[in-house]
């Protein structure tokens, strides 16, 4: 048995080594004739290749000192070679594919697989068994991950290229999942690249022998011995880094901080995210994203994020490339992403790659896992308010896998148990389902399907029912043309809708509904022409269909008039190209251009307004009807993307970026937090698209052998034509929203400092941000003037922000995390005076956002207790015990003033005003 | 048993999680130049117009609102007619009975004593349809009062209501005695009635309604107010006078914003307080805030009465909280007790078992419990049925 496995294993190794596979077991031994005297080895080989049509594979470095003295007349090739190589360290093997492998005895490993194969076909010079026994113990230790000491020969020897391309997919050896962002590099000269979202890497190296090192978050560092002749493939499997008592050897994306070209980007791995305690004990990616420098939210219980002074609708939130319009559940207390199906989250705050567009402030790319390609497994968690379960496994081993995750809450049931009457009449429930299938058709083609559904339902008073849902589907086809060029064709569909039903009074019983659909087709191509350039280009087109609102009677007695705001349609298209150019090892440049175009389409009736005065109902002049498919308004413009990096030293660099983004859809919300009743509006003749520009510059430095990363980034941002609201704006069921909004211009600037320690017993990050966001509404010809046309702080302007996320691992089974967050209170409009309006005292408010609410700070603590680490048991489980808001600070969520009788009282409402303990049980099988 | 405990635990945790906590909050005193002109009132196109000019105050200022006196106030039409309003004290200015042209547009012009000029925009005249009905219903331990109206021309669409509540109430203890110069005397018919009183209260909330989303211009059962079952208002007889004003869309928006700013803020999804821009501007300094929104309309009103006998029988209506005590002449004199006027005699206390003809003391209660005039008037309103 043992030899069988041994042989099988070697076979696997051999195939993965990318030397041309498939040796038939029949061989011919052609006769050769020649007269060589002190001939160069390469000359000798060329001559033989010419005579035999056999291809020779050899290492130039090993053979260049060898000279050949031999005379042969119609002798078999094997005999000639035996003679020729006598006295040298070289050995040879001949395959049935008319290939001859010349190897050096010193590097016996090279010849081992060769000889193994030849062993089955013909006599060889080397004793396989002996060699195998010598090396197998080490190989077994490495399990299936591929050998770190084996030499992989890539490509055909004899091509005279100075450089060659190596590409492949990096996967997890346990699950077969591709690994994103693993860093693949050689040390001299320093050439490196990172795997993309498909785990694909492509690196151009000088031909010859290299030690290829591979590192990734949560993975054991690995390396491959590579002998590169010409372009070839090398798929790499890496082992997960099992939590160990010793210093963890993870050096996540080692010096990406310094040497990566991308700036203003944060990648969070699900492992990191899981360590951060949250209010309900449920891993919440959006809440972790909110701890990153430059990301803020208006308040607790709101997952709407404000990135570098942008509003909550300026974030492109993608789940496997499909846009998510509402990323939260239950008023934003939970994020809409099930942590168990997620792989990673990437947030781009600046230098947004050209392939993304359509939102002004950021791109948040959420990627789900592909599912385990090797074996069936599952994971789940039971928390106080929610439970979740994820199943995954292969459909066809190593080729097709599925991933299915679901999450639901029993808060509805809990509410019913409460003695309080108003809670009993309330309902709150949600669920979400993720499904993912990935299939590898062949080595060049893969397809991925993703489906996502999330639904919420809650009833606050006894008579108003809110419901909302996200539905997403995406299909992706990845095709490798060759090592240097691959394409991804993506089709996605996103749907978001909500409805609010009022059932209290029969006369007013009604349903208010909103919905938006977007279908997106996108082609992205990645081209790696040589080691200095990486070119991305592609095109995309989005078709929007929105039903901005409908109000329909809900009972026969209802007097509600059916009212439907006209549907809106539009197409947003873009083409882009970007080139990353590594000018020298120290200087890299990425230049990109995206050209986007937006067409608002009929059928629709559009109001026109008298020019030069604010758009109001009284300034309406005409109504123009557009027929179906006719363009109502067209906007287009270039979006420039530029970034550059200069390495000051080996462990420090400076980066610079500029980008422009255009946004054609706008969220309408007159409330401070992101609420499910916000609607989305497409640009049209009366609502212009938003345009934003950002310049950022950063300094990056790594300390202590790249274990501590430091970064300082500063930015300045301009925004035009984003929407602010006129006083008393009415958003819902408004047939002419342009009369209630104001075109605002904004500027934001800030400095973000971050120190991150990704490894070690103690890990985490610490960040400080100083930032300002200022808004101005000062165009009397389009709307009313706010604050006399001066700049005023935006709703989410919080100048000082400090965050500490720390994690300390006491033992393999016990770790703790402690988080601390501080930020300046957000701006508020305060009452400055009181007056009588005849009978009642009323209040007069200050200028918009003139004052601030008290500062915010919060301490969270969590303990994670793992079950034992026996390899073989039914399920691996862990307990998370966490306390949110440990000090019980009553952070204001909202401050408001009410006039009650003849007095005016100020109130401060805090939602998580006491320490909140939670317990979650997680399992994995 | 164990299961029940578990439920309680979860319930308790849930409460902890979802129960938000509201605390009083008072920011640092906001000092500033905040004495802005406030204009209250509307242009009555069919009757006398009364406008009140006062000034805003600092939030912590406890003095009565400063009135703007000696100003020149007039109603001006676009055609150039003007009608003077005359100061009647307290910042109030009243015109004579006017009959304004509903097809014209009017504005309010103000020139203060120090010579600052203010004017509203010219506003169109809205005709207010009559109130159809004021109805009420006892629901959930309270009396809910509704207004119903409609405009057959479907022309009004926006409404605002004010109301004045008046109710009859009695002192907790009726007395036949009075204290005069150190003596207790019997009350006679020349003494004022201190047992039956009436008092009034103006609405303090902004009541707005619109039929804009309905196929007809109908306001059906708009809830104006609710009176708890144990309120003194409905202990004997209650009356409500509802005043109805038609609004323009812009005026409606103004009142709605004012309502949002001061009444509706504080839950999770409420809008931010927004600036209030009225339709009155300073002619001398365009950046000077002026508070108020001038509309021009007719006014419609209707009154109803609710007697306690119409309320559900099971309701235990208002019971005054008053205690009664006794003073004995053997220990003290009436002067010592009643001279200060804080307490009043209620009835005589005689010795037990016919021990004598003369009172040995008096029961007494605080003046609030005996003299109803401390909280209202004993003059029966003219309209009282």
Automatic annotation (TrEMBL), chain A:
Signal peptide boundaries: 1-21
Membrane topology value: Multi-pass membrane protein
Organism expressing this protein natively: Pontibacter populi
Residue ranges occupied by any TonB-dependent receptor plug domain in the UniProt entry: 280-359
Alphabetic keyword roster: Cell outer membrane, Membrane, Receptor, Signal, Transmembrane, Transmembrane beta strand, Transport
Subcellular location: Cell outer membrane
Name the UniProt record assigns to this protein: TonB-dependent receptor
Main localization, broad class: membrane
Family: Belongs to the TonB-dependent receptor family.
Pfam families found in the cross-reference section: CarbopepD_reg_2, Plug
Source organism superkingdom: Bacteria
TrEMBL record, chain B:
Record InterPro entries: DUF4249
Designated name of the protein: DUF4249 domain-containing protein
Upper classification of the organism: Bacteria, Pseudomonadati, Bacteroidota, Cytophagia, Cytophagales
């Amino acid at each position: 048995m043992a030899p069988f496995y041994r042989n099988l294993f070697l076979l696997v190794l051999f195939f993965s080594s990318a030397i041309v596979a498939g040796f038939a077991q029949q061989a011919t031994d052609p006769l050769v004739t020649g007269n060589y005297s002190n001939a160069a080895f390469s000359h000798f080989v060329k001559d033989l290749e010419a005579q035999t049509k056999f291809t020779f594979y050899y290492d130039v470095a090993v053979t260049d000192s060898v000279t050949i003295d031999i005379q042969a007349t119609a002798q078999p090739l094997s005999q000639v070679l035996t003679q020729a190589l006598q006295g040298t360290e070289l050995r040879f093997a001949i395959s049935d594919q008319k290939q001859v492998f010349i190897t050096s005895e010193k590097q016996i490993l090279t010849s081992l697989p060769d000889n193994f194969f030849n062993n089955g076909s013909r006599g060889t010079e080397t004793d396989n068994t002996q060699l195998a026994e010598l090396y197998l113990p080490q190989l077994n230790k490495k399990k299936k991950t591929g050998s770190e000491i084996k030499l992989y020969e890539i490509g055909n020897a004899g091509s005279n290229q100075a450089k060659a391309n190596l590409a492949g997919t990096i996967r997890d050896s346990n699950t077969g999942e591709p690994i994103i962002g693993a860093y693949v590099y050689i040390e001299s000269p320093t050439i490196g690249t990172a795997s993309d979202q498909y785990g694909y890497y492509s690196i151009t190296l000088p031909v010859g022998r290299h030690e290829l090192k591979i590192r990734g978050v949560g993975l054991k560092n690995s390396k491959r011995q590579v002998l590169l002749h010409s372009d070839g493939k090398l798929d790499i499997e890496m082992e997960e880094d099992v939590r160990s008592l010793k210093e963890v050897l993870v050096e996540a994306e080692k010096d990406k901080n310094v040497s990566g070209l991308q700036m203003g980007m944060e990648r969070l791995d699900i492992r990191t995210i899981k360590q951060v305690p949250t209010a309900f004990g449920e891993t919440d990616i959006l809440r972790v994203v909110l701890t990153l420098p430059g990301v803020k939210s208006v308040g607790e219980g709101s997952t709407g994020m404000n990135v570098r002074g942008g509003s909550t609708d300026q974030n492109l939130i993608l789940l496997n490339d499909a846009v998510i319009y509402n990323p939260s559940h239950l008023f934003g207390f939970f994020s809409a992403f099930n942590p168990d199906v997620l792989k990673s989250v990437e947030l781009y705050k600046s230098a947004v790659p050209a392939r993304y567009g359509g939102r002004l402030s950021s791109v948040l790319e959420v990627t789900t896992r592909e599912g385990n390609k090797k074996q069936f497994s599952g994971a789940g968690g039971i928390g106080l308010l929610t439970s979740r379960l994820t199943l995954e496994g292969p459909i066809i081993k190593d080729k097709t896998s599925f991933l299915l995750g679901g999450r639901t809450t029993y808060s509805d049931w809990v509410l019913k148990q409460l003695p309080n009457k108003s809670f009993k009449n309330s309902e709150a429930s949600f669920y979400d389902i993720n499904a993912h299938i990935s299939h590898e058709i062949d080595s060049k083609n893969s397809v991925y399907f993703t489906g996502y559904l999330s639904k919420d339902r809650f009833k606050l008073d006894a008579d108003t029912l809110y419901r909302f849902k996200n539905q997403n589907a995406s299909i992706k086809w990845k095709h490798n043309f060759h090592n240097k060029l691959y394409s991804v064709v993506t089709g996605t569909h996103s749907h978001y809708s909500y409805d609010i039903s009022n059932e209290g009074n029969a006369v007013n019983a009604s349903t208010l509904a909103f919905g938006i659909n977007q279908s997106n087709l996108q082609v992205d191509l990645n081209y790696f022409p040589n080691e200095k350039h990486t070119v991305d280009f592609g095109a995309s087109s989005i078709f929007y269909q929105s039903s901005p609102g409908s109000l329909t009677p809900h009972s026969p007695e209802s007097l509600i008039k059916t009212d439907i705001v006209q549907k809106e349609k539009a197409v947003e298209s873009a083409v882009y190209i970007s080139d990353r150019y590594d000018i020298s090892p120290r200087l890299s440049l990425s230049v990109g251009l995206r050209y986007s175009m937006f067409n608002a389409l009929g059928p629709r009736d559009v109001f026109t307004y008298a020019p030069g005065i604010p758009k109001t109902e009284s300034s309406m002049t005409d109504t123009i009807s557009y027929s179906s498919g006719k363009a109502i308004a067209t906007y287009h413009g270039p979006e420039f993307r530029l970034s550059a990096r200069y390495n000051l030293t080996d462990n420090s660099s400076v980066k610079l970026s500029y980008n422009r983004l255009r946004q054609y859809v706008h969220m309408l919300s007159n409330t401070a937090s992101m609420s499910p009743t916000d609607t989305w509006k497409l640009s049209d003749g009366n609502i212009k698209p938003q345009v934003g520009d950002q310049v950022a510059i950063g300094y990056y430095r790594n300390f202590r052998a790249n274990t501590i990363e430091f970064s300082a980034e500063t930015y300045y941002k301009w925004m035009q034509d984003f929407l602010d609201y006129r006083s008393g704006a009415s958003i819902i069921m408004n047939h002419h929203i342009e009369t209630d909004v104001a075109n605002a211009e904004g500027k934001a600037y800030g400095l973000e400092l971050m120190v991150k320690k990704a490894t070690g017993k103690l890990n985490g990050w610490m960040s400080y941000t100083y930032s300002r966001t200022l808004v101005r509404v000062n165009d009397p010809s389009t709307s009313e003037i706010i604050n006399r046309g001066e700049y005023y702080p935006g709703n989410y302007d919080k100048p000082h922000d400090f965050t500490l996320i720390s994690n300390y691992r006491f033992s393999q089974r016990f770790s703790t995390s402690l988080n601390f967050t501080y930020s300046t209170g957000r701006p508020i409009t305060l009452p400055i005076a009181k007056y009588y309006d005849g009978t009642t005292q009323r209040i007069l408010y200050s200028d918009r956002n003139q004052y601030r609410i008290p500062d915010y700070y919060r301490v969270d603590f969590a303990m994670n207790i793992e079950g034992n680490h026996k390899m073989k048991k039914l399920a691996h489980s862990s307990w998370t015990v966490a306390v949110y808001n440990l000090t019980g600070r009553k952070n204001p969520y909202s401050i408001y003033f009410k006039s009650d009788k003849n007095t005016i009282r100020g109130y401060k409402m805090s939602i998580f005003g006491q320490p909140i303990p939670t317990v979650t049980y997680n399992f994995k099988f | 048993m164990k299961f029940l405990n578990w439920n309680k635990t979860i319930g308790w945790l849930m409460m902890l999680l979802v129960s938000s906590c509201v605390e009083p909050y008072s920011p640092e005193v906001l000092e500033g130049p905040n004495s802005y002109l406030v204009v209250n009132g509307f242009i009555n196109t069919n009757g006398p117009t009364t406008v009140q000019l006062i000034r805003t105050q600092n939030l912590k200022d406890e003095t009565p609102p400063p009135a703007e006196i000696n100003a020149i106030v007039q109603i001006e039409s676009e055609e150039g007619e003007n009608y003077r309003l005359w100061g009647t004290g307290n910042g109030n200015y009243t015109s004579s009975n006017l009959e304004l042209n509903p097809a014209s547009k009017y504005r309010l012009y103000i020139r203060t004593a120090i010579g600052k000029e203010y004017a509203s925009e010219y506003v169109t005249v809205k005709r207010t349809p009559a109130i159809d009905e004021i109805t009420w219903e006892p629901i959930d331990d309270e009396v809910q009062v509704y207004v119903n109206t409609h405009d057959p021309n479907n022309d009004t669409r926006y409404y605002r209501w004010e109301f004045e509540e008046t109710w009859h109430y009695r002192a907790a203890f009726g007395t036949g005695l009075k204290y005069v110069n150190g003596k207790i005397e019997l009350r006679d018919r020349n003494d004022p009635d201190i047992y039956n009183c009436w008092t009034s209260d103006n609405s303090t909330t902004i009541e707005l309604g619109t039929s804009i989303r309905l196929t007809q211009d109908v306001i059906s059962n708009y809830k104006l107010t609710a009176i708890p079952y144990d309120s003194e208002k409905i202990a004997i007889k209650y009356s409500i006078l509802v005043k109805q004003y038609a609004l323009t869309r812009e005026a409606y928006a103004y009142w709605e914003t004012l309502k949002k700013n001061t009444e509706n803020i504080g839950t999770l999804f409420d809008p931010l307080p927004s600036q209030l821009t009225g339709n009155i501007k300073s002619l001398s300094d365009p950046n000077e805030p002026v508070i108020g929104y001038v509309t021009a309309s007719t006014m419609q009103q209707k009154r109803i009465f609710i007697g306690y006998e119409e309320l559900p029988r099971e309701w235990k209506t208002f019971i005054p909280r008053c205690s009664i005590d006794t003073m004995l002449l053997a220990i003290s004199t009436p002067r010592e007790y009643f001279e200060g006027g804080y307490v009043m005699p209620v009835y005589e206390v005689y010795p037990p078992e016919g021990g004598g003809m003369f009172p040995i003391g008096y029961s007494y209660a605080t003046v609030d419990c005996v003299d109803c005039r401390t909280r209202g008037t004993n003059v029966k309103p003219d309209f009282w049925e």
